[in-house]
């Protein structure tokens, strides 16, 4: 049996790992536009071994409350089992697994309740620097098991009818037949996913877009909440708008730039090495607007307006834009007021503004020493409709969609997608 995996992200890598751990006898080929973990540069955030999840700070959320609809596919117990396998893989290839920090908050503090909801769940924090080391060990293991990787290779076409993947690299053209195709192209491949779905006239489900900012301030302001939950997630739901904070980074916390669709978006990382400590906190504040007819198109247009003359924008009453942990410019143009942002957000920025103002009430030491990077965006392209049991297309049961290609959000859920598909392949081998 030939298995072709498009994308060496968290979903594809966990699928391959599940297969080789169980002595799969067929051939496994993985195609990715990026580089292996030994060659992947810091600036290559979205592609390469372990994908965006491998170049993040590695917060593994152990909950079905966020990250997608995995429990809808397989039930709560099975979803938790699949995510635990992902957590175990990261621990298994970690050079110092005893240093993985588990945050397991159990009770929402009273000082939050008048202003925000707070989602509580177990979360493992690995750290950006350790993720890089995990990637190298994990990659070596798969190579030793016979998994074939094609780096710097872009898929040009997939032929579902004849079960063929066409791809090209710098010096080669590939025509790869498959018996099973695992489609895990991630955020970088959202346009390609849409093209494929249109080509075969396959049904999709429109998903809401989430747009917002990356907030940054000294950690001391948030310490009383960090002591409860390292990766705290504040939220509020209004009539037609939902807001949430996510991806909180502390101690050695740095703003990062990632590219999706040619657009730039801000994100955040945190390292474990104390030499990088800067005593800062950053997190995303994302807004989801309901009732917009074409949310994906709306979000792209919003981001395009923000980035008409710049990679991204930075606003602060008092601060300057930060540098990355590698000393790289975050590529944000400082603005003196928020007029251009408010215009781009078409009146919806007031909800983010209210969110920030209420944080000042919850954290009274937070005054003017904060800043925001604009935009932070999580694109969710129209989602392929799949069979829940194995994430396959009804018309093409040998094609399985996983990870961000199926609107998964986060490392744990994406990895669980790949593990689920691999289990089903093994069961039917």
CATH architecture of the largest domain: 3-Layer(bba) Sandwich
Q: Taking Cα atoms only, what radius of gyration do you get, to the nearest Å?
A: 21 Å
Principal-axes shape call: globular
Helical content band:
25-40%
CATH H level, superfamily name of the largest domain: FAD/NAD(P)-binding domain
Query: Strand tally, please?
Result: 23
User: What is the CATH C level class of the largest domain, in words?
Assistant: Alpha Beta
Could you tell me how far the N terminus lies from the C terminus, measured between alpha carbons in angstroms?
8 Å
Strand order of the largest sheet: 5-14-15-18-13-21-19-20
Structural class of the secondary elements?
alpha+beta
- Separate helix tally: 11
Task: Give the number of domains.
Answer: 2
Mean pLDDT: 90
User: Low-confidence runs (pLDDT<50, min 5 residues)?
Assistant: none
> What is the strand content?
25-35%
**What can be said about the biggest beta sheet?**
8 strands, mixed
Predict the CATH topology of the largest domain.
Answer: FAD/NAD(P)-binding domain
What do these coordinates show?
The structure is a single chain. By secondary structure, this protein is an alpha+beta fold. The chain folds into two domains: 2-102 and 122-205 and 383-427, FAD/NAD(P)-binding domain; 210-378, no CATH class. Helix content is 28%, strand content 27%. Helix 1 packs parallel to helix 11 (411-427) and helix 4 crosses helix 11 (411-427). The longest helix is centred in the first third of the chain and has 17 residues, at 76-92.
